[in-house]
Structure formats: C-alpha cells, structure tokens
Write a structure and sequence with these properties.
Membrane-bound Lytic Murein Transglycosylase D, Chain A, binds zinc ion
C-alpha cells in the first residue's frame, strides 16, 4: 500500500503548485488593474476619436498617445481603445459626426474644384461677440490635469444666450455625454462655436442665425455644477481659445 500513498502525495504537491501559481497570476492581474483604472472602448461605426475623447472627457492627444494612433482619420471600426480613468464604457453619440463628416466631404468636393481650402481662420479679436452676459468662471486650457476645451460663463438660469457670430445651426439637441442640451453653429471658413448646458434651445437645425440673435437659455443640463454656458470655438475640429476671438 505504499504506491497509492505516494501517488496521493504527488497529486497533493501538484495541486498546491497549481493553486500557488494561479494565485500569483491573479495577483499580478489585480495589480495591473488597480494601478491603471480604465476601460476598453470598442470603436463603433461613425465614432471619431474626437467624440470618443469628448465623451470620456479625456484630452484627444493623450488618447492618441496612449493608444498609439498617428492618424485619427483612419480609426478602424472595432479598434479597442484604452480609456484611462474611465469607470464604464460609454455610448458615444455619432449623429453629430455623421452630419459634420458629410458636410465636410461635400465642402471638400466643392473646394477641390475651385481653390485650395482656407484651412485656418486667424484669431481675430472681435470676430465673435460674447454669447452671454455673465462672469467668466473658467478659462480655456488645463484644468486640474484635464484640458478644458472652452470657457465657462456663469449666469442665471434662463439668461439669454446669443449667437456669437452669424451662421447656420449645425446641431441642436442633446450632445455628447456631459454637454447636456447644446448647439453648434457653423460660421465662415471652418469656424464653429459650441454652446452647452442650456435649459432651453430656441432654434432648430439648419436654421440661419444672425450675430446677436437669441439661440438658447442658460441652464444646468449635462455634467454641470451650476447654471453656466460652456462656450467653445473650434477651427476645423481643433479647440481654440475663445478669448482670442472675443472682445475684451
Ligand atoms: Zn466648460
């Protein structure tokens, strides 16, 4: 009866080795996870890096760097992007991208026939007027480690929000995560302005608006800590400092 006894010992030893190594592997995985909180976002049809970055509130350049993306326009459907700091996978609204993309394509077609596109509109002081009367509560640029793509103007709920310049309403409604009720106006060249967190929107998509025309009412919708207007100026899709376009 010596043989079965030894066999039992060998099996027990092997089991212990397996359990031990298994624990080590789990432990390592756990360490990786706890050091790097985040989620994998799988790119869906129509989602651009720009809107994914927006939805997760992460700087686009950081997202590019982390995921080794050199050409965001060639982002493939099904690509898994590591989103550091995110708690859960978010739905990224694609409706805006599609509109913007088709418009851009149409525009590019037109431009190719005629002339070379005028890519950059210079920051001209006074090209825009202030979209709301209120207190500048947050500036453009780094804000507690994150990039703030616009400025915040604090004002009472219901205060009139006006078009900073004449143009066409490119988007009206609930924006990407955090933006709440928002508007995008397309102006001359490739300049757009974004108005977020509104309580009410007074215009509709494709409407032509004049500078100074009322377009919305200040609110607190989306990710907002009090009634204010989050205002962005974008050249193509690059966020610019609105203060460079606004009068003092
Ligand atoms: Zn803001």
């Amino acid at each position: 009866m010596i043989f079965p006894h030894n066999l039992a010992r060998v099996i027990l030893f092997l089991l212990l080795v397996l359990i031990f190594s298994g624990c080590q592997i789990l432990k390592n995985l756990d360490i990786l996870r706890s050091n790097q909180k985040g989620v994998y976002h799988t790119v869906q049809k129509g989602q651009t890096l720009y809107f994914i970055a927006h939805a997760y509130d992460i700087e686009i350049n950081r997202l590019k760097r982390i995921n080794g993306i050199y050409n965001p326009s060639k982002l493939q459907i099904g690509t898994r992007l590591w989103i550091p700091g995110a708690w859960q996978v978010l739905n990224v609204d694609t409706s805006i991208d599609k509109q913007a993309l088709t418009k851009k394509r149409k525009k590019n077609k037109k431009l190719n026939k005629k002339e070379t596109p005028n890519k950059n509109i210079k920051a001209i002081k006074g090209f825009l007027i202030w979209p709301v009367k209120g207190q500048l509560t947050s500036r453009f640029g780094s804000r507690s480690g994150r990039h703030h793509d616009g400025i915040d103007i604090g004002a009472r709920k219901g205060t009139r929000v006006v078009a900073a310049a004449g143009g066409k309403i490119m988007f009206s409604g609930w924006g990407p995560a955090g933006y709440g009720l928002m508007l995008i106006i397309k102006h001359k060249s490739n300049l757009t302005t974004v108005y977020a967190h509104n309580s009410y929107i007074h215009v509709h998509k494709n409407q032509i608006v004049k500078q100074g025309q009322r377009i919305a009412s200040v609110g607190n919708t989306g990710r907002s800590t009090g009634p204010h207007l989050h205002f962005e100026v974008r050249n193509d899709s690059n966020p610019m400092n609105p203060l460079n376009y606004l009068p003092k």
